[in-house]
Amino acid sequence: MSRATAGVxxxxxxxxxxxxxxxxxxxxLPWQAVWGSYCPLCNHLNINHVEEREFFQNSSLxxxxxxxxxxxxxxxxxxxxxxxxxxxxxxxxxxxxxAYIQQYVNDNPEKFGLENLQGPFPQGPDFKAVxxxxxxxIEVERAYTDYKSHQHHHNWSFRKVSILICLDSKQPxxxxxxxLPQNIWYIDQQHFLEWYAEYIEKQIHSETLLSLHHxxxxxxxxxxxxxxFDSEEDWSMELETNTMINEISSEMAFHFLVxxxxxxxxxxxxxxxxxxxxxxxxxxxxxxxxxxxxx
Length: 295
Fold this sequence. Notes:
Elements: E1 5-9, E2 16-20, E3 25-26, E4 32-38, E5 45-52, H1 67-78, H2 81-91, H3 98-107, E6 115-118, E7 127-131, E8 134-141, H4 144-149, E9 161-166, E10 183-186, H5 189-228, H6 232-237, H7 239-257, H8 261-264, H9 276-294
Parallel strand pairs: 8-9, 9-10
Antiparallel strand pairs: 1-2, 3-4, 4-5, 6-7, 7-8
Helix pairs in contact: 1-5, 5-7, 5-9, 7-9
């Protein structure tokens, strides 16, 4: 609002009224402020001013990943063979979270000839499976040295482990072989990198979608509360109604975001693609249907 007061012609009933910066409210989203006011005659919400907020970055909605992971996704997407080879070399010297290696094995049992794979388990060996017709227990580590550093060779729970799957291709010497499982398998590192990039990217998209759903759900909840209650005190008094509003707001957020899914999963997606004014249009179009379910 550039002026202290401004005249507004209600788009619903054509009534002219005046507003100041003190009696307009922001009904936008973090990346776009939308200032609106309610007509004192018909209570229709009129849009007075829209303001882009350039400082709000897309990354604010995404899980924080380290620089190496972000670089990895970019390199794999561009299929830069020279850099992929460099990354494969770095695997030997840079720790990769064991949970990701476990997830790789879980997603790719056929790469190891495993059937009926179960796990990863929170305690004891990571997996159980069938290999060559026999039931086996499997431990997954970044490198074979981790098996001993984790003291698995002294743990009775690991006595039946016959397969150790490692990401690092370094092989044990004859002397260091003692105490390790009978079979030591090594992950195809290039295949792991391709899987890892796709896995991280899916996580980023999933986190972005969940964050967007949460934001839009809260937006719908605010609109319903304004529609149904006169004050914030009323909101807290109607616990059962509020529960229903939250459920309906979540459902509305899902239906609103469905058409945006292809954009959200595209690398060039920007938060500005989700427009608060589109949210308002969606709410106005469907609110009566949902309010009837609440009341």
